[in-house]
Amino acid sequence: MAVTGNGRAGGGPLAGVRVVELAGIGPGPFAAMLLADLGADVVRVDRPGGGGLAVDPAYDVTNRNKRSVLVDLKSAGGPARVLDLVERADVLVEGFRPGVAERLGVGPADCHARNPGLVYGRMTGWGQEGPLAHTAGHDIGYIAVTGALGMIGDADGAPAVPANLVGDYAGGSLYLVIGVLAALQHARTTGAGQVVDAAIVDGTAHLTAMIHGMMAAGGWQDRRGANLLDGGCPFYGTYETSDGQYMAVGALEQQFYDTFTELLGIADRAPARKDLARWGELRAAVAERFKSRTRAQWTELFEGTDACVAPVLSLREAPDHPHLAARGTFTDFGGIVQPAPAPRFSATPAAVTAGPALPGAHTASVAADWDVPALLGEEA
What we know:
Elements: E1 18-22, H1 27-37, E2 41-46, E3 66-70, H2 78-87, E4 91-94, H3 100-104, H4 108-114, E5 119-124, H5 139-145, H6 165-190, E6 194-199, H7 200-207, H8 209-216, E7 236-240, E8 246-250, H9 254-264, H10 279-290, H11 295-302, E9 309-311, H12 322-327, E10 330-333, E11 336-339, H13 363-369
Parallel strand pairs: 1-2, 1-4, 2-3, 4-5, 5-6
Antiparallel strand pairs: 7-8, 8-9, 10-11
Helix pairs in contact: 1-6, 5-6, 5-7, 6-7
């Protein structure tokens, strides 16, 4: 019977898939969380003494729906315990620098010797090869060299830092999950596993595919704040309201733009939207109008219309947005408000079934369920 991340019988489209996650930080844990959300039995191999983010493990929601065991990979018996898990797994996810897993005795060759059908997912910033492969880095550097960071921000200002969403999670975690699922399909068809080299620089560059096409066609300028989708367009951007809050405008198509200008109250004096020479004048007119009312007032006016206008909410405000609340986009589990699993499935719905896995809390249940009694031995 399939088990959920906490060992109870459950569903989700990946029910029955077993994943070993070698503990790390950032995109690796998030990718493993996504697999766990979708029903995979994810066992996180934590190191004694920790080594993750400086946050109480009880609040690290990227470890929800998982189980945790403690194994010291640098101890004499550590690698063997992990390989015992690998022998019974479908997928392994690790986020070490290139060569580290090999030195620890749990690299692809070691794992495939025990389980030829294993999908071995590798999450790094620079990738497994290349002149920077062995150097340290973080999201901001990875998205910087791909051109993605340079696209974001005002024309006359510095690039805007989009938290770690574009690199770590969009270009990293999601591409690792795509690769793992594709390789899993191949393994189930052929019986042969393989290594998935998911590099944040590769994934982030891939995200810019449409922009590169537009640039080649002459429809995108290679500078910030000068294009249709980067804030350069006066009807695709953000505007301050009278109470210091912001509204987001995305009225690109003519019919939506017409609704937008009518509701905003400038339809009779707005410059032609296609007259780029007057975009500055149009921006000023839009900005002036938005400054005349509060965010709440503009939200009430635009809500439910095709003007493509929405309030810019904070993280704490977002769960209470009427549409998100109606859909259950966020959930409260164990007293922690957090995003619910996504996407949604009609036949195999996913759910949050367990809070963050505390290091080593599930050693006994994993040892029994996966038939790896060595996990119960003394950890050195």
